[in-house]
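Local shape tokens

___
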Amino acid sequence: MSEWRRPGTSARTLCAVIAVGSVFFEAMPALAQPADLLQLTRTIALPDVRGRIDHLSLDLDSGRLFVAALGNNTVEVVDLRAGRRNARLDHLRAPQGVAYVSDAKRLFVASGGSGTVHVFAGDTLAPLGDIKALDDADNVRYEPVSGRVYVGYGSALAVLSARTMQLESRIKLAGHPESFQLDGNGSRIFVNVPNAQQIAVVDRDRGSVVSTWDVGETRANFPMALDEVTHRLFVGTRGPAALLVFDTETGRRIASVPIGGDADDLFFDGARKRIYAICGEGLITVIQQQDADRYVGIGKVTTAPGARTGLFVPIERTLYVAVPAQPSARAEIRAYTVE
């Protein structure tokens, strides 16, 4: 969620990012046309929404998209079937993370301004309870096997029960957690900790950090995605703007590819072996995974300035992108179909 501004980047730093260890990359092939990668198929207006928009979540059964409108202090509820915003949760303070838990039919909203996780009933969206004392509550993830909700806040992860809505434990970190991913094949959580210039590896069974991986000369590692099949972790940095690829078995950094500036969300498309980096400078960078160790940028799709968060829904082959309001244009959700 955090803001960051890129300082001047030296040629030496850029070379260090492109050449990682003993892995060097050949010249990039001709870029695909945007329509060959992502086609804008739908636009849904978000009336009266001002300021930054943060993360999104989906209730697939009812076709509702939940949008954390951080700058508007609301969560916008979009009916994807009707193609319109049909509800709003207001009186929130800087909502950043949202997670709809279909098992419990509850919506969890992390409000950074109040340090509170609000819980709402999935059907009526009536308030059910609050978990407080979570300073700068941010990203939210759900782990269905254990029924636990993980929330990044302060310098820790909070572990909540989706059923009882109680705080079960806290996992301390070296700094504020940004994006994090749960390993579905084990007990690990990979956490971006940009203030410490590291990726923390948490064992959720032990409830502690078991390893840290240095992001080297790069800065501002905010977004993250995971390919569990090839054991690869994708991390977006803003200084310089790059996609870093780590081997989750060894922690070794094996690749780096330039992306657009100000990225805040990354998604891995396992069916097409592609990574989508949503970048606030106004574009989506599309990267092809040629194999576990080789990656190349294959195209850029223009979006809008400040559009840096979204949600990829594989079953729909759709990438939703949140576009904040501009002086001459209202806020909206754009749906891009993967070709």
Notes: The CA atoms of residues 83 and 173 lie 41 Å apart. Residues 11-18 form the longest helix (8 residues). Residues 4-29 have pLDDT under 50 and may be disordered.
